[in-house]
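agent> fetching stored inputs for the magnesium ion docking request
agent> found them:
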Amino acid sequence: MANNKLRVGILFGGKSAEHEVSLQSAKNVADAIDRDKFDVVLIGIDKSGQWLLPDQSHFLLDAADPKLIKLNSENRESVALVPQGGGGLSNLSAGGTHSAIDVVFPILHGPFGEDGTVQGLLKLAGVPFVGSGVLGSAAGMDKDVMKRLLRDAGIPVARSLTCRHGDVPDFEAISTEIGLPLFVKPANMGSSVGVHKVSDQDTFAQAVRDAFDYDTKILIEEFIDGRELECAVLGNLQPQASAVGEIKPSHDFYSYEAKYIDEHGAGLEIPADIPDSVSTRIRELAVQTFQTLDCEGLGRVDCFLKSNGEIVVNEINTMPGFTKISMYPQLWEASGISYTDLITKLIELGLERFERERKLKTSF
Ligand SMILES: Nc1ncnc2c1ncn2[C@@H]1O[C@H](COP(=O)(O)OP(=O)(O)O)[C@@H](O)[C@H]1O
Ligand SMILES: [Mg+2]
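agent> prediction call returned; pasting tokens
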């Protein structure tokens, strides 16, 4: 019998500070994807940015430990996507081309994964893929551009200043303008890497240096004292919002340690214990944020709820953490879509967008 399953390339790892998070998400997706519908091709990107076809059955080392988890780069084959190759992967080690991949699921977080770069490569290759395209990914990734677009759409965001490489931000002037404590963060990063809460001049200087280690542009942002609520969005032209969940960090804020290292670093409460009116408003803002930024497929919109009831959108993640226990899949689980069905739905959305765009004229 002919195999009519779609070949799904799971692209994971990557040259990013969120490499390890991506490995965990990829493992969970590979374990849960509907094998009656899909054949899986694992494509691991190592920390230097090389694309490898790892051993399918043993592609991770220390998979159960988030601190030690690693891409198994032994016996790997080095590959590259062929431009206009319709998903063909060329074998850089031995020559030749593998049979084409029908759709790619880029489970990559942060720069080189969630920022439009890999999406551009996939578009040039002519292969459908899951999630936002080039513009939505880039606009969602860059917190400075994201906030300017949201503000323009009338969506409430925290006040902030943007500094570029070479600027020496003046603590006195800034703290007078936006108050203390304040937050310093790289414009393009995620998982709280390079994010600092600052209350004095010394920690400010360190925070600015550290944030500039990760990006050439940083944000200095007013502190929002509020609960952290998250809403998942799914869809292309008619995106839907999930139930709303709450993050309850046990640390001073939702830091990298609280997210991934300390197993008691944060609790997830789904659904959040909030009035229906607040939940409705957050779900509206989530869809509005998603559409304002030209996102497609999936996105998790993170908000603050202040004690006076005000809601402030903090950010969107166009490729949110995607392990079985991550907020995004959990929010859909609570809204009636299982992890396996969610993966199928995302692949279908990627294919739908590809077909829609393929019908566009490329000559006049
Ligand atoms: N302006 C702010 N006010 C209060 N807390 C903040 C602010 N900005 C960030 N945080 C805290 O830092 C965490 C990470 O910041 P965030 O902007 O979401 O960056 P990332 O993209 O790395 O997740 C947030 O989840 C929140 O706990
Ligand atoms: Mg965040």
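agent> quick read of the result: The domain at 6-129 is CATH 3.40.50.20 (Rossmann fold).
agent> awaiting further instructions
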